[in-house]
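ligand=histidyl-adenosine monophosphate
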Amino acid sequence: MQALPGFRDFLPDACAARNYIFARWREVARRYCFMEWDGPLLEPTDLYKKKSGAEIIDQLFNFTDKGEREVAMRPELTPTFARVIAAHEREFKKPLKWFSIGQFFRYEKQQRGRLREHFQLNCDIVGEAALAADIELLALCIDLLRAFGFTEKDFVVRISDREFWTDFLREKDVPPDRWDDVLQVIDKFGRESREKTIEKLGELADPVLKVLSEGGKSEKLDRLVDGLRGRGLGEFVTIDVRIVRGLAYYTGIVFEVFDRAGSLRAVAGGGRYDNLIQQLSDGAVSMPALGFAMGDVVLGELVNETPHARDRMQQAIATERKIDIYIVIAKEERRADALAQIQQLRDLSYRVDYPLTPMKVARQFQAAEDAGASLALLYGDEWPKLKIKNLATREERLIAHEELLAHLQAQSSVSS
Ligand code: HAM
């Protein structure tokens, strides 16, 4: 029996890598004073039908529940976020800055960087229309990746503005009900054949392709990049009007993060969605909002392909896994004394392991080495003294067992 296609088993190494990613995400989101929250894994299918756009609807894991409700496993967090904000915004001061780490489900064709489940970090800001919020959000996105050891040589944030395109379409007298379709074609530019793009754009093909190949000018985007430059983050970003994002709700600045080599799918993406909360609350609550999500799958690939980031992760995982003390039970008559001591040590938060059943002393020392223990404590002929061995320096000494805790505390105060 295997896991379903596109679903992962997280064996200990994979789980350690996942925890490493989550820990960096939490650490940096907290540095920017975002508060953690979460929503349900299952939502009414309508929530996504109304708000996410055609591409995601095709990818829903949806079914009818036992109460005849049409439900879907969440493919993304933004519609849930907008629903929750519309219901609770009065309880929180603005601008509200929230983050969330959770699992999402999309029935996509399984390929490199795309699975049927993945984890995302979502970071969103509500209640601030000024460009300062977009700059802050982008700085957070960049700093999240820097926390993995990535530099401007490893990734780039491509920034664009949907307003640039809606202004363009207005100028060309394209009716607003066609804008979404045109934006979808631009989003797929480069992924679909040129012929198909031209066919779908019709009379707009020439002017749109001209902008896509020559780039566009936008005073707002220049100010945004200046803001990041002022923070020393200018090297991480580039203006690229080809980015419009596939999701339907974006209204302003949008961005996607890619590896510099351009060999992977997007690591993260997001932007402004100033109308979504209003739409979801039928006009009751109107608030500007912006955010992005970073996925664990592509990020994990980028970490593994980037030697300095991979070494950093492996070192962190090795340190995290190390145990403090391995108890070597050399004489089975001492097992009860050892277990009483182990209980006490664990109560004091030491990470302690020992053989559950009788085992040769040499194998126990090997187990201590394998676990990366700092100390081995030997319960044997020396009782009521213990042999204490520092596994790094190989130094050994005998101490009375009742002095063990005082000895360990003295040692840790010397080392810290
Ligand atoms: P998204 O671009 O659909 O945005 O997804 C964000 C990130 O999630 C992607 O860049 C990618 O790393 C990861 N991701 C998405 N689908 C998959 C998949 N099938 N397998 C692996 N990784 C995947 C959103 O979801 C927006 N709701 C983000 C947002 C938050 N906008 C505003 N706030």
